[in-house]
Write a structure and sequence with these properties.
This protein is mainly β. Strands 1, 2, 4, 5, 6 and 7 form a six-stranded mixed β-sheet that branches. Strand 28 (344-349) and strand 29 form a beta hairpin. The longest helix is centred in the middle third of the chain and has 11 residues, at 228-238. This is Peptidase A1 domain-containing protein. Residues 1-358 form the Peptidase A1 domain.
Length: 518
């Protein structure tokens, strides 16, 4: 997307917690502000002094109290400018919150909260039929065969990316905001299964905690949090202490990355015959399973160089995008972030305050379908006990939706092409990287965090999402779209090759991705 005049491209993180679009300002957010590293790590830097259409609007501070209370609104410059995107989208006089000191979240935010100003603008222009959005994250591994484009659909969903007709549908829980889940998207985890080196499967949740666990879904979060006992069980079954890099100092036994995957546990690389290569399956109540292969959560330790290119900081290490909750975070609600959504498809209805979680389907085909509340009719879709689930894509377990969950769900049928055309579809390009192969071997990570504005690595466990406030929305009936059977399930698209990043301008292709990543 582009902001200002002349238009400048930006990459945005998707946030369900905030309602205002936030940008990093040229002053204070990064030093030096002209570095490609700063631009790449933030998704672009906005210099309001160079946009001829930007105008300050301090009244927005009092009319948009959407940021969490701990954020000092006086540290933002509030104003309006032109926000544009493809195809043929221009939002004039669009409200923006511009950071003056980098105290906002670590990336530019396109916010989809209950009172989102972005959705307000799209609805007023009749660009989308409803306040709904759906996220297919794609694959974000290190090699060509573990990469795949993702997409973001506003006003509907991509039915080809839903891996099963069975899914988990939940109300958003605003009360969880104070408990550390700013999105309010809470699901109950009943088990975690992992494959072990001998080819078997073990439970690391029931064996360690012995009970179910509520977890928070936050797509922008860089890692998957695991309670301490669960992480210990994972570590033991993955290969033991020798698999991970011991911290030279500090309160944590294992070193954490301070690269583009902050907080991830540091392990040894595959060339040392130690890296974990199995899968993790998260089982939710009622009986919905999401499987994440290791190539999506065991990654190279990517850093940005001064030109904004990505390089492997130390080829001897790998980052496990799993984070052990310990010390002061031991009792926090676990947050399931980006890696989890490589195996899940998320649909959110902001009008009704509900969300739908299912397995995803790894295919290049697209079928963008609008959700229009005026075209919806409540029907009884209680499944028959003899109904067979659709076949999942290879390597993924099917998901099931139990009878009590599906009763009363709304099925939306779009009758007109004009409504279908009203959906706004973004294709998140598979991430790009430039492998500089700069090996800066370090036994204890003393480098500075890629995402910290002051150059000081943030505490590895105390990952600050800044997403802890949710507007108090009225919970309504459960809406969801349950697509019918489709042909050709189980296929997999050809995965794209890496392409070089255009750091200086942040190309339009980058600007529409959910986040800049390797």
């Amino acid at each position: 997307m582009q902001v200002g005049t002349p238009p400048k491209a930006f990459a945005f993180e998707v946030s369900r917690t905030f309602n205002d679009t936030t940008l990093f300002a040229a002053a204070g957010s990064c030093k030096p502000v002209t570095s490609g590293k700063c631009i790449a790590s933030k998704g672009g830097i906005f210099d309001l002094t160079t946009s001829s259409t930007f105008r300050s609007d301090n009244l927005l501070t009092s009319t948009a109290p959407f940021l969490e209370p701990t954020v000092n609104l006086s540290k933002f410059t509030w104003g309006r400018d032109i926000l544009s995107g493809a195809p043929d989208l221009t939002l004039k006089d669009f409200p923006l919150a511009v950071s003056s000191d980098g105290s906002t979240p670590n990336f530019n935010l396109l916010s989809f909260g209950r009172n989102s100003t972005f959705f307000d603008a799209l609805i007023s222009q009749k660009r989308i039929p409803s306040r709904t959005w759906s996220l297919f994250y794609g694959l974000i591994g290190d090699s060509d065969d573990t990469q795949m484009d993702g997409n973001l659909v506003l006003g509907g969903f991509d039915s080809e990316k839903i891996g099963s007709d069975k899914a988990l549908v939940q109300n958003v829980r605003p009360t969880y905001a104070s408990a550390g889940c700013g999105s309010g998207m809470v699901v109950t985890l009943s088990d975690i299964l992992m494959t072990v080196p001998n080819g078997g499967t073990v439970s690391i949740l029931r064996g360690s905690l012995g009970t179910s666990k509520d977890v928070c879904l936050l797509p922008a979060y860089p890692v998957i949090n695991l309670p301490g006992p669960v992480w210990d069980a994972f570590q033991a079954n993955a290969g033991g202490d020798s698999l991970f890099v011991k911290a030279a100092s500090g309160p944590y036994a294992i070193s954490r990355s301070v690269g583009i995957f902050p907080g991830g546990m540091l392990g040894y690389a595959a060339n040392a015959s130690k890296s974990y290569t199995g899968n993790i399956t998260f089982v939710f109540t009622p009986d919905v399973s999401i499987t994440i292969p290791s190539h999506q959560f065991v990654r190279k330790d990517w850093f940005y160089d001064d030109d904004g290119h990505l390089y492997d900081y130390n080829s001897s290490f790998r980052v496990y995008r799993l984070s052990k909750l310990e010390q002061g975070s031991a009792n926090d609600i676990p947050i399931f972030g980006q890696p989890f959504f490589t195996g899940a498809y998320l649909q959110v209805d902001e009008e009704k305050g509900n969300f739908r979680l299912s397995t995803n389907r790894l295919v290049s085909q697209e079928n963008i379908t609008a959700i229009n509340s005026s075209s919806c009719a409540a029907v009884d879709i209680t499944p028959s006990s003899t109904t067979s689930p659709a076949q999942p894509s290879p390597g993924r377990r099917p998901s099931y939706l139990t009878v009590p969950t599906v009763i009363g769900i709304v099925v939306c049928v779009v009758f007109t092409a004009s409504v279908i055309a009203g959906t706004w579809f973004w294709r998140r390009r598979a991430a790009r990287r430039v492998a500089q192969d700069k090996e800066e071997v370090s036994t204890a990570y003393g480098g500075k965090s890629e995402l910290a504005d002051d150059g000081i690595p943030r505490p590895p466990v105390e990952l600050d999402t800044q997403d802890s406030w949710l507007p108090k929305a009225k919970i309504q009936e459960l809406p969801a779209v349950i697509p019918g059977e489709r042909e050709g399930r189980g296929g997999r698209s050809e995965l794209p090759n890496y392409v070089r990043r255009d750091v200086e301008g942040l190309s339009e292709l980058q600007a529409i991705r959910a986040r800049v990543r390797p």
